[in-house]
Amino acid sequence: MSSTREKGLIVSFGEMLIDLVPTESGVSLAESPGFLKAPGGAPANVAIAVTRLGGRSAFVGGQLRQGSEDRTRFRHVAFRRRKRVYVLPEPECRHASSARRT
Fold first, then answer.
1. Residue 23 belongs to a domain with what CATH number?
2. Are 48 and 82 spatial neighbours (Cβ–Cβ below 8 Å)?
3. Is 56 inside a domain boundary?
4. Is residue 89 part of a domain?
5. pLDDT tens figures, 26-63
6. pLDDT 10s digits, 72-95
7. Quick one: which of 35, 58, 68, 74 could link to 20 by a disulfide (CB 3.0–4.6 Å)?
8. Which domain holds residue 73?
9. Cα 99 from chain centroid?
10. Residue 84: left (phi > 0), alpha (psi -120 to 50), or beta?
């Protein structure tokens, strides 16, 4: 085996969420004076962890048409800031979190 051989790519599929992290520790969520936004969600966290461990990863997630456009933009910008993690958004998807009662 050659030492210059390229590493495989681990791809995570799923939703990227926005975690709200309290700005003050030791208080309840209701008592927190504010929150920081951080990209999260299990599949996204796996992709980030893989890159931090020296691997190559990509994240493929659905971009819902519903909801705030600002939230969608935040998710993509925040996630792209991670080193060597590629964001491959799916233009439109339907999954459990977008289900509606008819």
1. 3.40.1190.30
2. yes
3. yes
4. yes
5. 988 889 999 988 777 888 888 888 888 988 888 777 54
6. 555 555 555 555 555 555 555 454
7. 35
8. 9-94
9. 20
10. left
Residue type at position 33: P
Buried b (16+ CB within 10 A) or exposed e, 34-48: eeeeebbbebbbbbb
* 75: exposed, middle or buried (Cβ count in 10 Å: 0-12, 13-18, 19+): buried
Contacts of 15 (CB under 8 A, 6+ apart): 41, 43, 44, 61, 62, 95, 97
Sign of CA dihedral 71, 81, 48, 11: positive
Q: Is residue 83 part of a domain?
A: yes
The reported pTM is 0.54
**Number of structural domains the chain divides into:** 1
